[in-house]
Amino acid sequence: MHKFRLHPLIGVMAICLIMASCKVPAITQVSENRTVPSTYGVSGDTTNMSSVSWKTFFTDPNLVNLIDTALTRNQELNITLQEIEIAKNDVLLRQGPLRPYLSARVGASVEKVGRYTSQGAGDASTEIKPGEEVPDILTDYAPTLYASWEVDIWKKLRNAKKAAILRYLSSTEGRNFALTNLVAEVANSYYELLSLDNQLEIVRQSIGLQKNAMEIVKIQKEAAKATELAVQKFQAEVLKSQSLEFDILQNIKETENRINFLLARYPQEIPRDKSSFLTLVPSAVSAGIPAQLLANRPDIKQAELDLAAARLDVKVARAEFYPSLDITAVLGLQAFKPTYLVHLPESVLFSVAGDLAAPLINRNAIKAEFYSANARQLQAIYNYERTILNGYLEVATQLSKIDNVGKSYDLKSKQVQALTESINIANDLFKSARADYFEVLMTQRDALEAKLELVETKRDQLSAVVNVFRDLGGGWK
Length: 477
Fold this sequence. Notes:
single chain, two-stranded antiparallel sheet
């Protein structure tokens, strides 16, 4: 007989595993661009308003109460909190393969083999003890413990765990980003509501002035000093302003409902001070330097963490090309009668095995996952760079807007003051027949439009400060 030699076969298989491990694609090495300009085009002072708590930044108690309610009840924010829980559970999931699996099993079975078979003939001739043979119908009882463990030779499992931790941290930054946006959205909607309240008051005052002017025209018509055309023109202007009043009322209702939605509650009136909108002074702006965005903006930190996780994913995918070492062990008792289970050591069974396996041919699935992980890494790099660029541009845009809107507001205030005085002058001239009705009409119309634009400019001024606070990374601390 020829003796089968096992060692040469094992050697050949080991060489195949080594050769398979050598043919591994290289990781695409690309570094992200983290450079930003030194300033926003203004002062390079490092004082940054993003470190201020939103409760300190906003001084209106009504607005503070609204934001506080939104942070507690907002449904989108609560959805984000559950995403954090999902990411936390994924970390636990990735921790599992790093430790041995241990499971218990209790098995029972019944078997009868043919007598005229090698197994049946052997059983028939086997004596358990003198005068007692193995029965034809065999039961099998086996309480056992199973253990298995993949030895993390190439850090595949540890890198997968680190990637899960990074994604958990990324989800917390996503929550911070959602907080920042929610605070800004509530504040902007609140200022929008105040501006609509003031516009409504301006329109109603204008309607009163227009009606007074129309009554004067009617009196002059009766005295043959004006015509029906003048009366109809003033009547049309009153109707136009009354229509505008209802448009503003609808906008107020929509804005209130938008705030109520952010607060996760059904429609109700929003408490607010309607009288002091135009006298509100925007908070002082201190933008710091652009480099601070990398540490202060949650979306930039989130993109950075996602990039680090994507790089670990590439390492995990690459490790799939290498051999994996699995160790399995079984320890238990086995007998065809329960009473024999306690006969030790005859009923004891155990085994220990180690498997070294690596893909040799048809590795397309592993290659596809590796190349996909590489592509996702590049996506994460581009997303990180885009997020930094977007953050810088948002801040620069809002700083420019604050400057330009502030200058515009000063000029519009002077325009409103001049037009308000011109209304009285036009009315006096009209009464003394030194100005016609058209001049009065146009003066009132220009004054109304200028006052409405002044309110909108004040709203834009306040919103720009809120937006730069958000874009610098404030509102979540």
